[in-house]
């Protein structure tokens, strides 16, 4: 395969090659009918049924390539975009990143963490101490405001002059750095909190909240194809987030039932052969379906069925 030539007319779409975002992205691609076979060791793959090439990269490398227009479309975390843009702020040169769609995975918070039983309870107490992180720019800029306050206090004779926070970079396992004596505090991602608690740490503040996002380069080629992909991904997300609920109910109870299952626009109502009864079908948020079924049963609905949605297109 002549990679350079093969890529010429293809939309380049970057996908995290490892880590927490990798599998959900592969699931999205499968649901969007983007067909490919990834050869071993090769991180660029031609899609079989669309003029797209997938590029598998670390999540942290994706914002730079999208901002510079080397890649047209990508999925990464908002945290990674924020970190990169502090390093290389977007300029007025036609390059840059547009967020197309927030995705329902990769939700986490970038938090300042310290030993659970220690004396530190506020981030300003870390000024002048060592903080370990994989997010050097976000952490430096977060502590800069506390450093400025502390510098003002020192000028008034309230502090001892050690006002610069030392930011140490680590590529992973950041939580271990406190036990190793390499840092007094850390700034790292927290989702369930299990890793933080396992290391005897607690969060004392939040630097940023993040989720995975679909982004496009301001210089993206082939806007029609970008829209097609975004629309397919939106459909997969809707299908994952909703179920289809159908039930039978007496026509006179329809106004109450429609409040329980209003659907995305409105419920679909069909007459039944039995006089005075209707069949209702409505999309319901997956996470609310148990409560909705309880409520439907309580108001007199019968034959309540719930089905998964294979795919969807809706506004
Ligand atoms: N615990 C988590 N829960 C949810 N999302 C997370 C979590 N950890 C990281 N993320 C998201 O995933 C992105 C990539 O981080 P992750 O650590 O998974 O990748 P990586 O560092 O490339 O992989 P690895 O840690 O396996 O080497 C983060 O920037 C963040 O947006
Ligand atoms: O709150 P939790 O659900 O426990 O998740 C948080 C952990 O997830 C990420 O680590 P990852 O799995 O990427 O390992 P790493 O530290 O080696 O990067 C992050 O850096 C935290 O350590
Ligand atoms: Mg990681």
From TrEMBL:
Q: Does the keyword Cytoplasm apply?
A: yes
EC supergroup of this enzyme: transferase
The answer to keyword ATP-binding applying to this record is yes
Q: What is its EC number?
A: 2.4.2.17
Could you tell me what reaction this enzyme catalyses?
Answer: 1-(5-phospho-beta-D-ribosyl)-ATP + diphosphate = 5-phospho-alpha-D-ribose 1-diphosphate + ATP
Pathway(s) where this gene product acts: Amino-acid biosynthesis; L-histidine biosynthesis; L-histidine from 5-phospho-alpha-D-ribose 1-diphosphate: step 1/9
Gene Ontology terms describing biological process: L-histidine biosynthetic process
Report the superkingdom from the record: Eukaryota
Molecular functions (GO terms):
ATP binding; ATP phosphoribosyltransferase activity; magnesium ion binding
Gene3D superfamilies, per the entry: 3.30.70.120, Periplasmic binding protein-like II (3.40.190.10)
Q: InterPro entries this protein is in?
A: ATP-PRT_HisG_long (IPR020621), ATP_PRibTrfase_cat (IPR013820), ATP_PRibTrfase_CS (IPR018198), ATP_PRibTrfase_HisG (IPR001348), HisG_C (IPR013115), N-reg_PII-like_a/b (IPR011322), N-reg_PII/ATP_PRibTrfase_C (IPR015867)
Report domain Histidine biosynthesis HisG C-terminal positions.
239-311
Residue ranges of the ATP phosphoribosyltransferase catalytic domain?
Answer: 59-235
Which GO CC annotations does the UniProt entry carry?
A: cytoplasm
Keywords of the record: Amino-acid biosynthesis, ATP-binding, Cytoplasm, Glycosyltransferase, Histidine biosynthesis, Nucleotide-binding, Transferase
- Family of the protein in this entry: Belongs to the ATP phosphoribosyltransferase family.
PANTHER family for the chain: ATP PHOSPHORIBOSYLTRANSFERASE, ATP PHOSPHORIBOSYLTRANSFERASE ATP-PRTASE
The name of this protein is ATP phosphoribosyltransferase
Question: Which species is this UniProt entry from?
Answer: Eremomyces bilateralis CBS 781.70
């Amino acid at each position: 395969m002549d990679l350079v030539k093969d890529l010429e007319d293809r939309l380049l779409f970057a996908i995290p090659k490892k880590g927490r975002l990798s599998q959900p992205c592969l699931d999205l691609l499968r649901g969007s009918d983007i067909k490919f076979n990834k050869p071993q060791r090769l991180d660029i793959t031609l899609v079989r049924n669309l003029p797209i090439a997938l590029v598998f990269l670390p999540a942290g490398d994706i914002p730079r390539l999208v901002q510079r227009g080397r890649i047209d479309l990508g999925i990464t975390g908002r945290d990674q975009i924020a970190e990169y843009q502090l390093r290389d702020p977007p300029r007025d040169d036609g390059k840059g990143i547009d967020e197309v769609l927030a995705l329902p995975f990769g939700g986490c918070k970038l938090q300042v963490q310290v030993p659970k039983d220690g004396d530190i309870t506020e981030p300003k107490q870390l000024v002048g101490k060592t903080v370990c992180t994989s997010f050097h720019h976000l952490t430096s800029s977060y502590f800069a405001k506390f450093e400025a306050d502390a510098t003002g206090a020192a000028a008034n004779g309230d502090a001892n002059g050690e006002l610069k926070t030392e930011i140490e970079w680590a590529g992973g396992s950041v939580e271990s750095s406190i036990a190793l004596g390499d840092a007094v505090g850390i700034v790292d991602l927290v989702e369930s909190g299990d890793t933080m608690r396992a290391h005897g740490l607690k969060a004392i503040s939040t630097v940023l909240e993040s989720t995975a996002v679909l982004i496009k380069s301001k210089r993206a080629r082939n806007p029609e194809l970008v829209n097609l992909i975004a629309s397919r991904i939106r459909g997969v997300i809707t299908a994952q987030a909703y179920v289809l609920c159908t039930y039978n109910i007496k026509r006179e109870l329809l106004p109450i039932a429609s409040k329980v299952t209003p659907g995305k626009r409105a419920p679909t109502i069909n007459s039944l052969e039995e006089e005075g009864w209707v069949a209702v079908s409505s999309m319901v948020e997956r996470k609310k379906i148990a409560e909705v079924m309880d409520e439907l049963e309580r108001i007199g609905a019968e034959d309540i069925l719930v089905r998964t949605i294979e795919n969807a297109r809706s506004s």
